[in-house]
Structure formats: structure tokens, C-alpha cells
Amino acid sequence: MKGGLLRRAARPSTWRGRAAPDAAAILGAIPVPVVVLDAANRFISVNAAAEQFFSSSAASLAQLGLAELLPADSRLFALIEQVRRLDARVSDHDLALESPRLARRGVSVHAAPLPELAGAVVLTLQDGSTAQMLDRQLNFRGAARGASAMAAMLAHEVKNPLSGIRGAAQLLEQNAGEGDRELCQLIQDEADRIRGLVDRFDMFSERPVELGPVNIHRVLDHVRRIAESGFASHLRITEEYDPSLPAVWGNRDLLVQILLNLVKNAAEAVDPVGGEIVLSTAYHHGVRIAVPGSADRVHLPLQMSVRDNGPGIAEEVRGTLFEPFVSTKRGGQGLGLALVAKLVADQGGLIECDSRPGRTVFRLSMPTPPPGSLGTAQ
């Protein structure tokens, strides 16, 4: 019964001699999620933004109560009861609305009683996670640029001396005794290892990226086949695809590299017994963000997700997860996710991570092909 209550409450009016839009039409145009709950905390009216916030249609929400979406100890219930008790407006900020069906953090809630219906409460929900995501993305891009500068510096300052050190060790080895030969070989091996690390950093260097329409489901199928035939052969990989998803504007090879890295990380995180990885796609209104090489803010409605049921990522490293040298793996160098962040940024996309025990999701948001673009999806 989407907007039903508010539509009945609206009165015909005019504005500058024309019929004014009713309350339901105005509510539907508001980009902020607005819901009306009855005295039993069941949904009786939602706007379009609220449908997106809860990832459910108005018809589905009409069959639910708030208690079916959030745990009983959520601060939101205390706020709603305070509104009813005081018969006054109440606000709260930085709420975490989390459950198996919902994952929102940094939410600001403004609640007010609705006099026309006893016990009813109107909620407006301002999701701070989008702003946090954009802020993190800027940090990721800064980290990628820092890694690029570091790669150039290392290539120039380290590779040449390493070659000299390795050559000197080879010369010394020719006239060295048995014990000294082992030390000379150790020097050469370590020089080779450091050079390999520098070569890995070279992947962060700035290179032009060729973009075109990409069928993301073909990319995901390719990644899944690689995983199932190798590092994730013992795990269950399931798909939740939106078959109507249009082509992604990106680079096929880079998207394979990104998603393969994310799936491999998920495979290493989950329990070998009962571990599960879910690959999903969806179309969302997304956000508009200015990206390098574009004078306009671009729309990022295409979302790909890699979800696992592993133990989750420690909270103290989530904020720096995509920065170089940050790793949750024993012996890890912390370059994989930093490279992922750079490759996503190179294609004008966004990447974010939500994690809690038993559920970690990496979400990649990408643009659609620009108007007039040519070519067949790869």
C-alpha cells in the first residue's frame, strides 16, 4: 500500500493557479528514505528511496514489521518508543542497522509522531554509508597514486643498485671458497627476491586503460571456472545474477583480475568445510561521483558482489584495507587489495567492503557504457 496513508491525508490544493501535487507524489520524489510505521511497527507507507534503502519493494515491506528486519536490541526501537512516549520529535545519529537482511552503518534517524493515526511514527533515514564510501574511495585513490609514485621511485633507485650487487656477488663466487660461495648465492637470491617485489610494484604504475562494453556475467563465469578448477575446488560457489543487467563500461582483463583476486581472498578466508562464496549482480540507482578524465559526475548503477561466510575482517584494519602493505594474512605483503583499488579507480568505479563475523561482502560499482559508444560486449 505504497504511499496510501499519506495519499489519503493529502488535501486538494492549487499553486499559482495549477493543481498542486499531492503528498504522495512529493514523498516519492524525495531522495531521502521516508517510512511510516503503525503502532505495531509495521510498514504502512514507504517512498521509493526507502525501497532502495531496505532493498525491498513496497509490496514486500507491507508484509513485514520492523522487528523482522532488525534485532530487538536495536537503538531504533528505543527511539521509536521515545517518540510515542513523549509525543515529540526525536533524532539519533550514527546508528548501525544490521541484520542478516540489512547492513547499514552511520545512519541518522529523525522520527516524529503522526497525529492522524494513533501510535504511528514517521521516520526519515539518512544513510551516512554513501558519504563514508565516497570518502574511503578518495582515500583508496590516494593510496593508489602513492603506490604508483613508490613504484617509480623503487624502479629508479633500487633496480640499478640491485643489478650491481648481484653482479658483484657473481664475480666473488668465482674465486670464493665453498662456504663463501653459499653466501654469494644467498646475496644473489635476496637480490632476485627484492627485484621481484619491485616488479610487483610496477603493476601500480600509471598506464592508459582501454575501456569498452563488457558482459560482466561472462567475466564472472570465467572467474568461477578458474576458481572451481583450482584454489576453490573444495568450496561451494553460488550465483545470484540479475539476468537483465546491461553491459559494464570497463576493461575485461582488468575486471577478471579484480574479481579473481576478490574470490581468491574469499576462498582463503572461509572454513574449508562449509565455506561458501556467493557471486551476485544487481542494478542500483547508485551514486554520482566525479572521476578522473570526466568533467561530469558519472552514474554507477551496476553492482557486482563477492560474498563469503568467513570469520570477517578485523575492525581495526577495515578503514585501511585497500592501502599498500595492509594485510590480514600471515606473511602477506598487502599489495593485492591495493592493486584492486587502483584497477577499479582506473575504470571509474567504486569498491567498498562490509564485514562482520560470518559475512564479508566486497561490492564493485561500475558505470554503463556512455551514450553513443560502439562495440559488442566482450
Which helices and strands appear, and what pairs or packs with what?
Blueprint (H helix, E strand, L loop, with lengths): L3 H6 L4 E2 L2 E2 L3 H7 L4 E4 L5 E4 L1 H7 L3 H4 L13 H12 L3 E10 L2 E12 L7 E7 L1 H29 L1 H16 L3 H24 L10 E3 L1 H13 L7 E5 L7 E3 L1 H18 L6 E8 L4 E3 L6 E3 L2 E7 L6 H4 L17 H11 L3 E7 L2 E8 L12
Parallel strand pairs: 9-11
Antiparallel strand pairs: 1-2, 3-4, 3-7, 5-6, 6-7, 8-10, 11-14, 12-13, 14-16, 15-16
Overview of this protein structure:
The chain is of the alpha+beta class and 378 residues long. It folds into 3 domains: 4-127, Beta-Lactamase (2-Layer Sandwich); 132-204, Signal transduction histidine kinase, dimerisation/phosphotransfer (DHp) domain (Helix Hairpins); 212-366, Histidine kinase-like ATPase, C-terminal domain (Heat Shock Protein 90), CATH 3.30.565.10. The chain has helices spanning 4-9, 23-29, 48-54, 58-61, 75-86, 129-157, 159-174, 178-201, 216-228, 252-269, 315-318, 336-346, and strands spanning 14-15, 18-19, 34-37, 43-46, 90-99, 102-113, 121-127, 212-214, 236-240, 248-250, 276-283, 288-290, 297-299, 302-308, 350-356, 359-366. The strands form 5 sheets. A 5-stranded antiparallel beta sheet has the order 4-3-7-6-5. Helix 9 crosses helix 10. The longest helix has 29 residues, at 129-157. The radius of gyration is 26 Å and the shape is elongated. The two termini are 42 Å apart. The model is unreliable at 1-12 (pLDDT under 50). Its EC number is 2.7.13.3. Residues 153-370 form the Histidine kinase domain. Keywords: ATP-binding, Kinase, Nucleotide-binding, Phosphoprotein, Transferase, Two-component regulatory system. One of its GO terms (molecular function) is phosphorelay sensor kinase activity. InterPro entries: HATPase_C_sf, HATPase_dom, His_kinase_dom, HisK_dim/P_dom, HisK_dim/P_sf, PAS, PAS-like_dom_sf, PAS_4.
